[in-house]
Amino acid sequence: MLAHTSHTKTRARTKHSTHDEEQTGGGESARDPRTPAARSALNEFDHKFFGITDAESINMDPQHKLLLQCSYRALEDAGIPMEKANGTQTGVFLGLMNRDFELANVRNNPKHIDHTHGTGTAMSIAANRISYIFNFTGPSLSIDCACSSSLVALHLACQAIKQGDCEMALCGGVTCILEPSIFVALSKAKMISSDGISKPFSSKADGYGRGEGCGLVLLKPLKKALEDHDHIWGIISKTAVNQDGHSVSPITKPSMVQQEELLRKIYSTETDLTGVQYIEAHGTGTPVGDPIEAGSISKVIAKARPQMSGPLIIGSVKSNIGHTESVTGVAGLIKVILMMQHETIVPSLFYSMENSSIDVESLNMKIPTTAEKWISDCRAGRSAGINNFGFGGTNAHTHVRQYVQSKKPKAQLISKSHQYFVVSATSEKSMKNIIEDTAKQISAGKISELQTLLYTSACRRSHLKHKYRKVFQTSSLADLQEKLTAAVEKKLVPSKTISKLVFVFCGNGVHIREIMKIERLLQSYICLNLIEMLRSEPEKSTELSDPKIAQPLLFAIQVAVVKLLKHWGISPDAVLGHSIGEVAAAHCSGLLSLEDAVKVIHYRSSLQSTVTGGKMLVVSNMAISEILKILPSYSGRVCLAAYNSPQSCTLSGNADDIDRFHQNLSNSASGKDLFLHILDVPAAYHSHMMDPIVSRVKESIGSLQAHDLETELFSTVTGISLSSSDFITGEYWARNIREPVQFEQAVKSAAKNKKSVIFVEIGPRRSLQRYITETLGKDFTVLPSVQPDKDHETMLAVVCKLFELGVKVDWEMFYKGFESESIPYPRYQFDDVKRDVLASRLQLIGPTGNHPVVTQMGTGSSVFSCDLSSESVAFLQDHKHSGVAIIPGAFYTELGLATLMAYAKPKVPLSSLQLSITFQSPYVFTRNAPDLKVHLDPPDHLASNTCNFKIQSTSALYAFGTVEAKPGRTPEEQFISLDCIYKRCTFHMTTEELYKHLSQTGFEYGSVFRNKADVYYGEQFREAISVFKVPKELLPQLHDYHLHPVVLDYVMQIVPVTIGHDLSARPQFPAKIGSLTVFEPLEEEMVVYLRAVHVGEEDFDICGCLSNKQGRVLVELRHVKIRILGSRSQVVKEYFFHNGFSLTSEVVTFNTPIKALFFSDQVGISKALQQYLDPTPRYVSSSNSIALLEGGVELILSKLKISSVTKNFQEILFMWGDADLTTLESEKVLNSMAGCCEIFRKLIGYLRALHFPGDIRVITYRSSESIVDYINPGFVLSGMTRACAAELPELSFQLIDMGSGTFEDIKTLIQVLRSYPCDKYPELLVKEGKILKPEITHTPLPTMAISSRNVHMLHNEEVFILQTSDPYVMTNLSATQMDNSIELNQEKNIDLHLSKICVHSSDYFPVSISDLNYGQTLYWNKHTTENHKLLAVDFSGTVTAVGKDVSKFKVGDHVVTCYPVAATSKVVLPAAVWCKAKNLSFLNDIPCVSYMVLAWEILHKALPEAKQQRKLGIFSIVPDSALMNVLIAIANRLGWNVKVSTQADQLSCDFSEAVGAVLLPPYYLKNIELASSVRGIKDIVLVYENQTEFPFNTTTFKGTNEEVHFHTLLMSQIMQKGSLQIQMPHIYRWLKSMHLDRKALSLDTTVVVKFQDIDLMSVKESESYFTCQILPIIVLNSDAKNQLSDIPVMPKHRLFHKNLVYIVTGGLTGLGFETVKFIAQKGGGNIVILSRSNPNPQMQQEICQVSSRWGSTIKSLPCDVSVSEQVDQTIVQSPTPLPAEWERSSCRTTSPGRYAPCD
């Protein structure tokens, strides 16, 4: 632009208003302010890149934004990454003078000024924010010297560097023109050009044209810049600043005198004068200023130079870009260094010799009018000066020299394997733009060297905080360009910045230097040349199978690989090792020194090499639980050596047994699916084969020195994180070789509570990836560090992959030795958000799309504001909780829909949107409530039809969610049957009761939020229904919203009613709406229907809808989660604690003498300790207790001739707390405990007076047991010891409780006395040879055990009922026990146990009792967790009892029937419906009796009797279905010749000779029409699916064939119980008459098997009983045990029992009666209320209601429970005696809130 003589004038300005007096001031019109040299894209800013919130960004001065982005550009150009500049002593020196943004904001938006306005406009923050964002710690300041500001800032920066105030500095300036006031003022001062153009040194100049811009330079000492390979533009030689003072008048007039003085400071020698070749003049284009400046330059420089130097060239950048005011100085500097780089002096526009305002010849100056070559004969290169003057008189000048690049030897070429182009960004858009821009620069030839590009991309660009990362391996610029171009079109995935990096040690790698160090350390143990072995060919080496060779080699390589990765800056967050890998893991974690690690690897490997024999087998694709079932048969011969994953393990043991195990698995049914591999190892590690060397390993390794951990370390011996003694004892390493490798558990521990974990295998090949993936799933990344034959490539590849996954990589170490100077590419591409400078507030005048409250913050903005002060949302103030107005969650739902509808381009229909929202925190209305905003983030996700949103203020997040657009979306339930729902919802709650309950939970609703209709509740399916009528005051605005908040809030109000009996005063809040869709516009009157699909203790889930009055769904809600506060589990979590114990260990100190004074016990512990003690201990027997109490401690010691306790003893062991008091009376127990405490008190008093320096250890006996069966003084002595320890810090106490007096515990006690100091372990428990440390822990909530029983484990007398999880499909079968109260209540019934049940479908007959009773009117079933009682139709069983009038059946008979009844294991049915199975052998295995019933109805009742060979046509879409086989077989026996048709278009042809036709479902009207049109057909039988009404009017088809007779069969009518009782005896006789057998009726079956929650059925759920070819059956009883259906029995989680009696005292009022209701509701069958008075009539009515509702028997008896005689009399001699069964049963008592058993 400069060289091609163009003038900047961009970004059209809107016309600014001016005041009248400004337009007519002094008779001259003001200058036109509309033509500045303006900067394009002024307010585009990537606020996320700099970590600035959107709200703060809105109020930031655009000048601040420009400065931030230019600061990054300056660092980028210098090749200094942000992370490298972070924390440096870098200064920031800025010049700026315009405050247009602040002035415009105050004038235009005074009401919208908030806390971000101050920091957004302050001049100081312009510099300070740069220091804050980049973490610079040097001086940071903004100065205003008007137009000289930026060069004065440069001067101050140079001084600060020279003085040591900072090591480098950013300096420059910025100017943005946003407001007309300054224009007007400058116009009136006649400083502004009439055409807006600066014409320096021209006679046409009449003022300057304003310009915008931002310029920054980075200053650094030259020596340091050269050391750092920085890109250097130029060298600042000298700077100077002065002031005009009062040398001229007015203040704005330039002073020639002071300008000359300033120049003389710089050019004080002849060398200075001859060296300068160009002066960048201030040259604003004012008639006064230009001549003065030219004169001062001429006098001091141009005329003072030698004659041979020629005229001095001057120019001014203002002719090109206008006068940029506070930026102009640095703009001139940048112009000069660009001219130096291009060796070109650019022309000054609008100047010519003819129109010059100065005499250039007399001044010895030259102003070029065309571009010319900048010729320099000076060895130092080109040099120039820059003038910069402020209109207040502050002058600045800078002298700059060209940086002459000295020729350096070419940098070492990067190996081709190191050629990686590294790119990263904070957003996907930035990333793609960087890739695209770099490809374009390569194509344009601006990048010529691949090596400098790669080095710059990796080492000289910022990467640390960027979540989008990519590494391209390349071989040339052309190759890279091709790869970059292709990458632009690909989807980029962000890295997970919180990933945990875990190194898993398993194999080999290479890093020679570290291996040499390890080799030297090994020389003290074994002669081993590791490097030579690495270089040799492994297949030719036989030594590598020897553990003493292989293991050190493996260890060395593992350590070397980790050292290399750490060298490249890659450090793990955690490490773990598989078996031998633990040694390297322990060292690389920092715990073990290299010397100790080498010691471990030597002894471990050398001792293992002494063991040979055995084999190891890897088994995969088989659950370990199954392996464990097999192992007992190999006990002592085969061990489980490693738990690799849930599906993989390693076995180890005797060779023959391993071979046999291998063979057995191979030959098993699942053998072909297993992976079985014999490991090539010399011995069976981790098995009993290691036992001979376990003790030797322990002794040889001994104790190791523990060092501070550098990273978390997990043990595969324990499966958990490092414990105190892990890895640092020989005992641990002995366990390491013997015990199974807990790899699976260690991996789980490492990944616990982490969503993103990256595993890197430290080994020679990918060996553990499968195990990790099987353990954690495929969402976790596993990378190899080395691969066979390509170890170098793999190491480099893993570095690149880890970088892409978000791991920090030190690229400078990666490129060490290949450094080069940085180049300008790649350039970061900011993901700018475009926002009108001042429109963000001006646009708040009108809402978005006529929405009452939502307003888009600028055109295309993804941020929306909410005007909560609007009158249209005044109703929100009526929604309160505990007296405080809060926004309902329903309002947030509307905001999510409204903002997406406004933002979406192109527009989408509301019915296509599915919203999910999570409610985070309440928004409280207060006087200073923060502004509410909705952020759509990220907006570009609309391309994938999904958009996330957040509703927040500057201080809190209130809700967040997702809106997904899917065209053609339909509701899961399109219609609901309102009549059926009302029939089920029999409980009634008035509107007054509803709002009373809601008020008890804290909610308060104004009139607009209150619905006037009552609510109806159905307990069985936990559903509620109510009518909602929109209040009149809301009707006008109902359709201004997508879903009016009041409407949705009313839906939420009736949510608690769905859990009916669980209604309580515990607060309930909506936590989440899983799915909400508005399908149709709301109506004035609607129906709300809700169903609780899951009810837990802490929350419950709801599905439901808003429908119109006809039941058409308008709005569908699914998975609305309601959180219940104050749950039992929450109370337990927060407030319940208990004493727990954890294992602890210390390094054992041997042979330490214990010099102690023993107060010896009675159990014998002190006696057992004698052999371990110092030979001089003294014992005080408990027989001296009375003497001690009476005479004191001194008396006892004198008797024992102990002269000085302090000198003779290091410890006091007090063991008198073990006396057995179990059999004593309570008073004696109390006296004994008090006496023991008094003795101890006296002893402590004595020792305190002596200032005893040793330890006082109190040893108790079995005082920490959870079950007390041994009472002793230790219980109280423990408490007293703790009190003494707390109150007497000068003494040292330790409390030790012994679990027993066994040899094992005595030995452990010695270990405690020798190695466990009192100050570190104030309390310990010795039990079963272990040392435990007590700790207070949270008490976990007890959980109900899940039953693992199935129906075959139940006794015959235990009755159960089968259940299905879907009322319309027999699936997920389970059983639940029921009361065994089924009796033969009629004389003609028989009692039997079911054996087999045929599985039918709901189109044939209802499959559940729910389906039978309510049909298809249960909604959102697939979301529920409830079960439905199964309905059996076809079944068989064994007779267990018969009525006295039943003669043809006896106990033990096997019978079959068709009779709809609940599928219980025991049924009682009329004898008439049964038939002995032996009489109908074909039904013995398959009791499909209903098929026979249907055949009877069709062939016997509907169709006329068949004459010989008459033809019958049957239409069925499945010709060989089981039903068809039955019908054909029976029809043939009856003389029919059956023709089957399967296609509607072939029906007429197929039935052409038929006289009768049968149509089986499914069929359509067309089929009936075709059948009725066949001439020969006289009778047509239409079998209808399960429904209650005829779907077709058969008279419609009579017109085509008047002779046809239609016979309609409804399955629902055929299967009526009354009809079956009458018909079944006739049907059985009819079947017997045909002599059918199994050959005639051969049907295929499959057994329904329930296994691991999966129904293994050969019949698909969608298959119909009409058309299935294979009949599924449930087998409950069979001689073939493998054919039984494995149906689990669901446990009963009942708090109370039906057959027990519960007594509630004070049960007629308040909490007492609530307790009565609670017991009844939770299953209590019999309740007695004891109260001083009888219940009044109202209370008696409530008792009756509770009794009726829950089926409990409740009696109230007068009794004062404080008088025991009355209690006895009431229960035993009550005039109203208890029922007999109550007296036989157990009795439990309860007072309100407490339960306890009583005799």
UniProtKB/TrEMBL annotation:
Q: Per its UniProt record, what SMART domains does this chain match?
A: PKS_AT (SM00827), PKS_DH (SM00826), PKS_KS (SM00825)
Q: Which residue positions are annotated as catalytic?
A: 879 (proton acceptor), 1049 (proton donor)
Spans annotated as N-terminal hotdog fold: 842-973
What sequence ranges are listed for the domain Ketosynthase family 3 (KS3)?
Answer: 1-402
Top-level taxon of origin: Eukaryota
Q: Which InterPro entries match?
A: Ac_transferase_dom_sf, Acyl_transferase_dom, Acyl_Trfase/lysoPLipase, ADH-like_N, GroES-like_sf, Ketoacyl_synth_AS, Ketoacyl_synth_C, Ketoacyl_synth_N
Q: Which residues form the PKS/mFAS DH domain?
A: 842-1131
What reaction does this enzyme carry out catalytically?
holo-[ACP] + malonyl-CoA = malonyl-[ACP] + CoA
Quote the Pfam families the UniProt record gives: Acyl_transf_1 (PF00698), ADH_N (PF08240), KAsynt_C_assoc (PF16197), ketoacyl-synt (PF00109), Ketoacyl-synt_C (PF02801), KR (PF08659), PKS_DH_N (PF21089), PS-DH (PF14765)
SUPFAM superfamilies per UniProt: FabD/lysophospholipase-like (SSF52151), GroES-like (SSF50129), NAD(P)-binding Rossmann-fold domains (SSF51735), Probable ACP-binding domain of malonyl-CoA ACP transacylase (SSF55048), Thiolase-like (SSF53901)
Region annotation C-terminal hotdog fold: residue ranges? 986-1131
- Write the record's keywords in alphabetical order, separated by commas: Multifunctional enzyme, Phosphopantetheine, Phosphoprotein, Transferase
Biased composition annotated in UniProt, kind: Basic residues: 1-16
Which pathway is this protein assigned to? Lipid metabolism; fatty acid biosynthesis
**Renumbered residue ranges of the record's region Disordered:** 1-37
The alphabetized list of GO BP terms reads: fatty acid biosynthetic process
Q: Which Gene3D superfamilies match?
A: 3.30.70.3290, 3.40.47.10, Malonyl-Coenzyme A Acyl Carrier Protein, domain 2, Medium-chain alcohol dehydrogenases, catalytic domain, NAD(P)-binding Rossmann-like Domain, Polyketide synthase dehydratase
Citing just one GO molecular function, the answer is: 3-oxoacyl-[acyl-carrier-protein] synthase activity
This protein is called: Probable polyketide synthase 16
Q: What is the lineage of its organism?
A: Eukaryota, Metazoa, Chordata, Craniata, Vertebrata
